[in-house]
Design brief:
By secondary structure, the protein is an alpha/beta fold. It has one domain: Rossmann fold. About 25% of the residues lie in helices and about 30% in strands. The chain is built from 6 helices and 14 strands. The strands form 3 sheets. Strands 2-1-3-4-14-13-12-9 form an 8-stranded mixed sheet, with helices on both faces. A hairpin with a 2-residue loop joins strand 12 and strand 13. The protein starts with a strand and ends with a helix. The relative contact order is 0.17.
Length: about 210
């Protein structure tokens, strides 16, 4: 089995830390901005931090959108990390409506400023939160199969993905009583809102699982 993984370089995010984390778990990593290499990858990773609109503009300006969508039309594994997960959605409401990659149906909405108890909390949601099992979902045969419910992951985000189909939400986290999407999946398309490369042993287990798909 090969452990080849291609990371999309579109000028957004700390690619070096993601690449090093994959290498640590045995991945053979290529970081590229070449659309033809992206489209031909064995496994593709789209990381990212920052604003949705800026990320999509950078993908568009580099000619990556068609390459990513063509890759995603196959059964090869795809992983979006943080902003990369959000861009998998159809649309975002961040700074006005912006179209996404449309890999999983849904939209990206702001994290509410007030928790379920009526108290305000800090935005962005930043720090360690537990991964929780979404009701009715099994983690077997998913990217987080080797993770235990309650394992902690590192989050930094002001917006959250809201998939149209509840079955695409594999895991969520709790933020002041609010349920925020943490892991999404549709076939071999996966997304994680947290940063696995910054989430210690648990995050590395997830990356290892991805390269073994």
């Amino acid at each position: 089995m090969n452990h080849n993984v291609t990371i999309v370089d579109y000028g957004v995010g700390n690619l070096l830390s993601v690449a090093r984390a994959f290498e640590h778990v045995g991945g053979k990593v290529v970081v590229t901005s070449d659309a033809s290499i992206i489209e031909a990858a064995d496994r593709l990773v789209l990381p990212g931090v920052g604003a949705f609109g800026h990320g999509m503009k950078e993908l568009c300006d580099r000619g990556h959108i068609d390459a990513i969508q063509n890759f995603a039309s196959t059964l090869r594994p795809f992983l979006g990390i943080c902003l990369g997960m959000q861009m998998m959605m159809d649309v975002s409401q961040e700074f006005g409506r912006c179209e996404g990659l449309g890999l999983i149906a849904g939209e990206v909405m702001p994290v509410p400023l007030i928790g379920s108890d009526g108290t305000e909390h800090k935005i962005p949601h930043i720090g360690w939160s537990e991964l929780l099992r979404t009701e009715g979902q099994s983690w077997q045969s998913t990217l987080i199969e080797d993770i235990e419910p309650g394992d902690w992951m590192y989050f930094v985000h002001s917006y959250a993905a809201s998939p149209t189909r509840p079955e695409n939400i594999i895991s969520h986290c709790d933020y002041n009583g609010l349920s925020l999407t943490a892991v999404i999946q549709s076939g071999f398309h996966f997304g994680v809102q947290f940063h696995p490369e910054k989430s210690g042993a648990g995050g590395l287990k997830i990356l290892k699982k991805f390269i073994e798909l």
